[in-house]
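Notes from the pairing session

We agreed to fold both candidates in a single pass and log them together. This is the raw record for the first candidate, unedited. Please don't reformat it; downstream parsing expects exactly this layout.

Candidate A
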Amino acid sequence: MDTNLLHLGALALVGVLSAAINTVAGGGSFITLPALMALGLPIAEANATNRLGVLLQAGSASLTFRSAGALPSGFAWTTLAPTLVGSLLGATLSITLDEAVVRAVIGVAMLLMLALMMLGPERWLRERPEAASVGRLSQALAFFGMGVYGGFLQAGVGIFLMGGMVMLSGLDLKRANALKSLLVTLLTVPALLVFLPAGLVRWPEGLTLGLSSALGGWIGGLITLRVGPRALRATLIVVILTTATKLFGLW
């Protein structure tokens, strides 16, 4: 069998697995990025090509959540604009700047988020729409920062989005997870508008990853709708810890 077909077949399996993980919590791109680099793609091309998979996976999950009525109405627009602007800036920076310092900073931030989750689990385990005591400007700045990271690297951005929506906006994990998929879908568009003209997207690998990720997103969306906040919190803790150790190069 042709080696390229074997590579694409393996990439399809990776896409299904990572997308299901991404939909349940986040961090699935830390599986797809090494896989793309293992196929010989430079880091810049792997980073850009990965966005096709993210776009279709998150879009598929968003449709699943929408059909189930899990998307909070009216909330996304309060965070959408700063997230999209941040994504455009982050993607632009990613093609010019080194990411080593950013990886270290994000790794520390993830460990801090993990500590917050462990110290205050009640913040995650019940819906508190009245709990958003943080002002709109502060929320906008926070989601702008998440958008910058999402455009720059994307991997793990879902974890930050979920943390922001729960801790800053008072959503429970299930609704935050549904809205996270929508925001990831939308913030991927401006990033691709930067990467495509730069010629960094590899279409065979990207489309293979995208189609398999769409299937994985559908599977992950169904799984998420059937589990409660406690199970999602446990999953998120594992993913945060795994992602942070990956950022520090421990595995």
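Candidate B (folded immediately after A)
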Amino acid sequence: MSPKQVVFKKASRDKSVAVYLAKRDFVDHCDIVDPVDGVIFIDPVLLQGKKVYVMLSCTFWYGRQDEDVMGVAFRRDLFLVTRQVYPELQDKDKLTHTKTQQKLLRKLGDNGFPFFFEFPDNLPCSVALQPGPSDVGKKCAVEFEVKAFCGQSQNEKIDKESSVRLSIRKIQFSPEISELVPSAETTFEFLMSEEPLTVKLSLPKETFYHSEPVTVNVDVTNSSSRNIKDISVSVEQVTNVVLYSNDKYVKSVAKEETKDSVPCGTSLKKQYTLFPVLTHNKDRRGLALDGRLKHEDTNLASSSIVKQEVMKEVQGILVSYKVVLRMMACGEVSLEVPFRLMNPKPEPETGDGRLHSCSHTRFELAEILLKQCSVSDGRSPLLLLQLRVMECD
């Protein structure tokens, strides 16, 4: 079977412009972010002398899209850049950065024009807060979008009939496995008690994957004169919404409440297992979720990893997780440990389904396989290469 490269396509209603993208998920590797590159296809007859522009935007929504208050919409553009693609201001070769663009330009002919954008370092990833049953039409989310439109200038009102919008996502995967073992230890001293209460909390690793159980190790040594009871362990999602102010929301996404006790002069060593998954939190309003395209399934939002030097500049929604241990003595005693909840980095695949080194892109791998095929059967590699175009809603 010949290898295929999936390409996403969306055209305007009047068919004057269309956007082609090789992917809709762009990975933030912390040190660099995958650039957004694609091709715009135009119909010069339908354009009637108008110019064509392409725009990359990052928008923070915090209300209904179709309403505003005194002319102010419930949105804020965190990043917005627009470039003219037709008539050309630069040579096509300077804007062609990938094998996919080259193949698309050969396929689309003279009416195909490449574009290329780079993300700045201070943008959040695609995240949305889960709405409640009464929040119909409302949303609080960070969304990314590629838009192509035509007009006499980029500042005139955009005609919906001759414009096209394609949603994309900025995502992060788990970094390389760290040998760091998250742990915390503290002592509590009580009035009228000569000896303290010692509590240790630890996790087997720093990063857990979505749908993976979180194992929590608890070690309590009660040398005090107080009895410890009602031990509970929970995973809490901490969501920082940074816009005009810095608002913090803390919600439990997994919890185990027990009747475990530690009488004075005794100790307890126990392992608890928690399952922080969206299926157990479907109706929880305000939980942060990973951004999604249309009606795809999603999960709890992945932990945000931001470079320290741009932390103060980042706006949008930032997410972190922690395990919290609570117990009752004369009052509540608590201890917490932070950790990461993320998706694993996927392994690249070749056209024949076998794993391959990351040193080649998917399109380059396809070309390598095609050259091997051409040697064996004498056919041209170009005849074996197929672009599977997916029409997007």
